[in-house]
């Protein structure tokens, strides 16, 4: 190296550090290594929510449609003898599947029905309570919210057929005028 260039070396180093920065960009994200990603997965349960698209007992897989419209994707998870709630997995049911990754495959650990939440101001009534209302002949308005074809096949005595689409379309117009009368809705199963 030329002795005349030696005094310029510290200057070149300082210019290089100033140009590129010694600590890198201030907003740079830390690259997540596989170990960091695995640690993050341990803290959060892996979960799919959606509707069961299909179940294969032979292949031991459950397909679930996640998302809506154009964003919807069908995801597949495997299940085994340790999976809880496999009996809840039936085509068309809304479920929540908790799963874990084993190698590159997703394995369901728990399958639960995704039940609707009751709106504020409403309460759930159990079958024995409804039977008591019927036996005591207390005034209430009973609504069968299933499709009309199901109502026509069979329904509870005194039930009025008001399928969900009709209720959504006409609203309170199909309900009793007496706003103090309790209204009991029932359908084909847990929702």
The total count of strands amounts to 8
Spatial gap, N to C terminus:
81 Å
Q: What structural class results from the helix and strand content?
A: alpha/beta
- The CATH topology annotation of the domain at 42-113 reads as OB fold (Dihydrolipoamide Acetyltransferase, E2P)
Could you name the CATH homologous superfamily of the domain at 42-113? Copper binding periplasmic protein CusF
Major β-sheet strand ordering:
3-2-1-4-5
Q: Major sheet: size, sense and barrel closure?
A: 5 strands, antiparallel
Report the order of strands and helices: HHEEEEEHEHEHE
Spatial shape: elongated
Q: Any idea what the radius of gyration is?
A: 30 Å
Note the main attributes of this structure.
alpha/beta, OB fold (Dihydrolipoamide Acetyltransferase, E2P), Oxidized Rhodanese, domain 1, 5-stranded antiparallel β-sheet, 8 strands, signal, Rhodanese-like_dom, Rhodanese-like_dom_sf
Quick summary of this structure?
This protein has 191 residues and is of the alpha/beta class. The strands form two sheets. A five-stranded antiparallel sheet has the order 3-2-1-4-5, with no helix packed on it. Strands 7-6-8 form a three-stranded parallel sheet, with no helix packed on it.
